[in-house]
């Protein structure tokens, strides 16, 4: 049997090297102190071993030494803290122009949607040399998206979007693990991340038969659920205009200001009364149990793509306090017309790139 | 060990404390119906803290107790504050706008 | 204390706590802290071996990458019950409830703990909790992981979560009452002359651990109650489907469970602080620093819990604060290690079994502690969180640290508890086997973890197999090291040498009374006039034994 | 046991063997009780922390839920409990001053007030049951089991009139709240009710234990066990009872008085 015995993980992202540097620094530090302590203990044990004629020399302590071995470890640990924190801060802020991929974790599989509409199960194709941001959500319990070769990990929570990002550097196939224990087949919730050169990636995208881009799927859903009835750009609309909304601060009826990010949009679809935009009535029905996670992601992607109109004054406003004035439409009393007859959409047929994808 | 002179409170003092507690309760109840904005819960809790302090100091004899007992209670409150503030430190900063 | 270079052959005292009265009632209704300690010793040993069997099965299963021995369901139950048993039913009560219960009241010079009935009650609570836990185990087990993360545990898995939660709740109160008893005893029951500055460091560290038991345990109690309510009645506190927040469960869980790590390690550190000076014939280096570092660990230990949640979706700012504070708790641990090492300097070191364990502890705890720095470093933790790196780290602290200290303490005080010596040769052998087996088991797991092998995996990619085989091989050696003491300890009860009052020529009040001690510990309550660890003051030539 | 005037130097019958003096025993016991109360603070503290986080997250629902419970009963109960604390303090004082008859009557008074408190609590619980406000079973309503007229059904989006009340209150404030929105808020009041029942339930559980302790103290008091030489159990029982009172002092504004001025009784 040929021994396959690696002791260091692949480095396949721009962050990998940085994380490894801190790791190796700490390995050296640990080795140094462990060996120091071990050698001292053994040396003392032998040098000062009990033997006839040898008497222990009583020493009470030394404040100077105590200060030294308090301050030095403190100094070292502050270096580690700052180093680790700097890495973390970098890893927690996705670049703005990243390629955005949506991922859903469920017992026990991963589903991914590319902006072009391609879907895959338990595999994720990404190009080298490009920042990739993965927006993640779970349909059931807590999972964790872990790609050792990229040194990224993010717990995937139900009911809330979380993000992680990386810039793949080396083409190849790498492990994708679920690292948060999620039930019986936790260890089966694995897949692979396939890093391709940009050309290969473009070919792969082209070969996948997408039903249309994710945003266009979102637009379809947006119309299908009747969102356009209220969310219109004109001044008489009963719902806020969504053009150019994404990524901007929004003032709410209780004067709080929140950022219109993925989580805000998701919450507004499922719990519309939680954060009502200032100047609007809370009349929107909840879509909980009506739209699927996939559809919410598509709708979010669609809203992101709703570019602000040049004429829209919203675009010129920067401070959150001013938004209200521009967005307040006349409130019209209208009968609510709901689309409750919208049947729950069954998730579209997925196109597993990996045929081994297990049934949920 | 500790001073055990036992200058215990008298029924008269207990009665005064009791009346103060009743007044505090009525005040909490009354103020709740006046719109003071964000101050409503603040005042309600301030009254509650005052009432609790009275109970601890006199009904529970802390006013007359050793320093050790006083430290014990302070420790309890301190740890409770650790739990509340450090948990909230996550919840309240989660939605901070990233740069 | 009188010392003679030619010690007369020691004899057993005529009356002591073991032969004061007989019969099952005299044990089950005893209020003597020493007998309660023995009761605890027996019960936690049972749970140690149950937990150990689970561990052995886990390691056996992981010999092959494809999960061939057990089904995934069984495997998940194995590691859950291994964790629950070892943490709640072995590690937390180990040093405090067994060794602490036995020697702490004698060390401070009192006839018993402040509340003997509550002490007995706490043992019954332990047994009550254990009963629920065993009930959960035999009726099919629990497969949530010992962390019980919601919503997995509250709404998805089929195991007997509620039974187990009730068991942990009850055993939690057992630990609260032990802590309460220790705190009151240390404050109010010290012998005349036993000032705070004269307390043995074992008392200091148990006092610090007791603070955590009293302040932390109720939070896990209420958390698990809410979890059980959510599971039973679907109230929505943690399950997002019902409007709850699963991250809140993690906050509340780790608010206790991180400090609980210090409940487990602090008393172990106390044991080491007793053994090292005794076998070096030297005062502890920097008494005050070692004592206060225990308190510092207990206090700082409460403000670092969210370092278990860096990737769980907490706020970036909060993560930075918790990471910074995590380093604060590392410093007092480092101070202790340096002080122990310095204590050996220019000593007169004799490597008897307790000292072997103590030296192993210092080395292994150093590695365990330093690898904690990896996990507290935010950017690095993202990669190694929830991998075998974490598994290796906490086993280095819990097994390499706490279990080693527990074994060392058991050997150290065994003559005091039973009046007889254990046999030195097999004991040294066991210590050596444990050390080798332990390192072989857990060192490969650091590498596995950095390679990216997630924990709690029933099957794993084949390239991880070599390291897993090494680990399993180590576990088989380790198990020998743990089973061996069982035999020679039992053997020594009958055939061991008579120990005499103070076989180690150690300082401390517990060595001034007979071995085993009389029921009320002292024939006359001692008056303390000396500092602790006053080695080298009177005896000059300690005979070289063995 | 006698109530004879033993001095502390002699061996009092209630002195346990591990203590040197009655003074040490009382000191240690009182301190032990306080350490136990520390654990109680942390236990309730866990609930208070969770409560606070959800109160921020679901504020409108907490307002709606709070408004649906009867502030009058809560107010009355607060007074009852404060009264019981007063009688308990008097009981301890009369034990300290060897007033045997008074301590018995004070204990009985405390027990009556404690029982009244639990009775009112029970009535409030029944009202919640009657109004279909008991949370649980997957956010369906448990409550009146039979789907007769007025029964609680799983598909009732109004959640026992909470939704309707929200809209009525809004109307009084000249605000517009759609039925949809009110239903969503009503649904979220389940979280409030989860906390309401968990917190008051844990508190009531402590009250029941307290009544048990009081019964035991009463029996010992009638046998004349307590006097100025030895009243530690009385003192400890008092500490426990006052602690339970303090918890209620916080529960009352936190559960009953969220945004009361917005209307409601």
Q: Biggest protein-protein interface?
A: A-C, 89 and 95 residues
Low-confidence stretches of chain D: 1-9, 137-150
Shape of chain D: elongated
- Beta-strand content estimate of chain B: under 5%
Name the helicity range of chain B.
55-70%
Fraction of helical residues of chain D: 55-70%
The CATH topology of chain D turns out to be Four Helix Bundle (Hemerythrin (Met), subunit A)
Mean pLDDT of chain B: 86
CA(first)-CA(last) distance of chain D: 54 Å
Low-confidence stretches of chain B: 1-5
Largest sheet of chain D: none
In short:
Chain C has 546 residues and is mostly helical. In chain C, 66% of the residues lie in helices and 0% in strands.
Question: Can you tell me about this structure?
Answer:
The complex is a heterotetramer of chains A (360), B (99), C (546) and D (265). Helices cover 31% and strands 17% of the residues of chain A. Chain A is α+β, with helices and mostly antiparallel strands. The C terminus of chain A is likely disordered. Chain B folds into two domains: 59 residues; 34 residues. The longest helix of chain B is centred in the C-terminal third of the chain and has 27 residues. The N terminus of chain B is likely disordered. Chain C contains 15 helices and no strands. The longest helix of chain C is centred in the first third of the chain and has 37 residues. Chain C starts with 23 loop residues before the first helix and ends in a 51-residue tail after the last helix. Chain D is mostly helical and 265 residues long. Chain D has one domain: Four Helix Bundle (Hemerythrin (Met), subunit A) (Up-down Bundle). Chain D is built from seven helices and no strands. Classes of the chains: A alpha+beta (360), B mainly alpha (99), C mainly alpha (546), D mainly alpha (265). Chains in contact: A-B, A-C, A-D, B-C, B-D, C-D. At the B-D interface, helix 1, helix 2 and helix 3 of B face helix 1, helix 3 and helix 7 of D.
From the structure above, extract its key features.
heterotetramer; A: 360 residues; alpha+beta; Immunoglobulin-like; Cytochrome Bc1 Complex, Chain D, domain 2; 5-stranded mixed sheet; 12 strands; elongated; disordered C terminus; C: 546 residues; mainly alpha; Cytochrome C Oxidase, Chain A; 15 helices; 0% strand; globular
SSE inventory with pairings:
The complex is a heterotetramer of chains A (360), B (99), C (546) and D (265).
Chain A: H1 16-47, H2 63-92, E1 99-106, E2 109-113, E3 119-121, E4 123-127, E5 132-138, E6 143-147, E7 152-156, E8 162-166, E9 172-178, E10 191-196, H3 198-207, H4 214-224, E11 249-251, E12 257-259, H5 262-270, H6 293-305, H7 323-327
Parallel strand pairs in A: 1-5, 4-10
Antiparallel strand pairs in A: 1-2, 2-3, 5-8, 6-7, 6-9, 9-10, 11-12
Helix pairs in contact in A: 1-2, 4-6
Chain C: H1 24-28, H2 33-61, H3 72-108, H4 116-138, H5 152-156, H6 161-188, H7 201-233, H8 246-280, H9 287-300, H10 316-344, H11 353-376, H12 378-384, H13 388-418, H14 424-451, H15 465-495
Helix pairs in contact in C: 2-3, 2-4, 2-15, 3-6, 3-7, 3-8, 3-13, 4-6, 6-7, 7-8, 7-9, 8-9, 8-10, 8-11, 8-13, 9-10, 10-11, 11-13, 11-14, 13-14, 14-15
Chain D: H1 22-57, H2 59-68, H3 71-96, H4 100-130, H5 162-172, H6 179-222, H7 232-256
Helix pairs in contact in D: 1-6, 1-7, 2-6, 3-4, 3-7, 4-6, 5-6, 6-7
